[in-house]
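Quick one, T. Sequence first:
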Amino acid sequence: MDNLAVFKNRWLAFLLLLPTLLVLGVFLYYPALQTLGLSLFRANFIFLTKTFVGLAQFRQLLTDSAYYQSLLQTVVFCSLVVALGLILGLGLAILVNQPIRGAAIYRSLLLYPYALSPAIAGTLWLFMFNPEVGLVNQILRSLFGIAPRWLDTPVLAFALVVFAAVWKNIGYNLAFYVAALQNIPGELLEAAALDGATPWQRFRHVTLPLLSPITFFLVFVNLTYSIFDTFSLVDILTGGGPTLDKTGITTFLIYRVYLDGFVNFQTGFAAAQAILMLIMVGAITVLQFRLGRGINYGA
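Structure tokens:
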């Protein structure tokens, strides 16, 4: 305890924190408070109208079946992106971690999608899966005589956005898993092999448990990515459509905020949705901290 650094002047600690607090206050806390205030008004900045309605917009959201459909679609989408992203990332990491010639080149190629901006990635997938002139449909038409309407069929459009999101972020998962695999002590795997463990048993009982800290980290990183950073992919590929039941099948929560705020100009209504999303993300963060107490990131 005697070796712990202690500030003799507590104002020095606040002074050192001041730049960070200023940035957070200007770019995070102040906008959040503004959004909270705006959610209490039925506002339209196009017609410059602003009427105080209190919590009416929150009650409207919580009784709106279209909002619950968007919420369900978001949960399914995020679950698929996280699960597929981690499984494929780990599988590819195991392959490129093998002592083979050109492994560094393979890693670089697999990291390439993550280096692309979401707008460019969405445009690539849009051209590849264009129903008329896309490369994928040209191949399917020549081999099987079929040309699916990828962007017009609800199930296909949803699947397309899922796989595009997974492909875009798989390089991030790959990089972390490769680093984690290279830090696993080889003696443990050798000892398991000498004890007669099969390759699957060594992976199941040695490698996978040792990867649990990085997997725990990647679960929440991928969850945040699927909630917020897939906006551009959805906007370019489907624009929130095609319509299924009460709303577009790819109208996820973040895209719904955009539609209501910047397309329908229901600014206060969009602010109320943003506040609900903030509460959801806060709950996820609390869950991460609670579950993370038992995770050991040491050697």
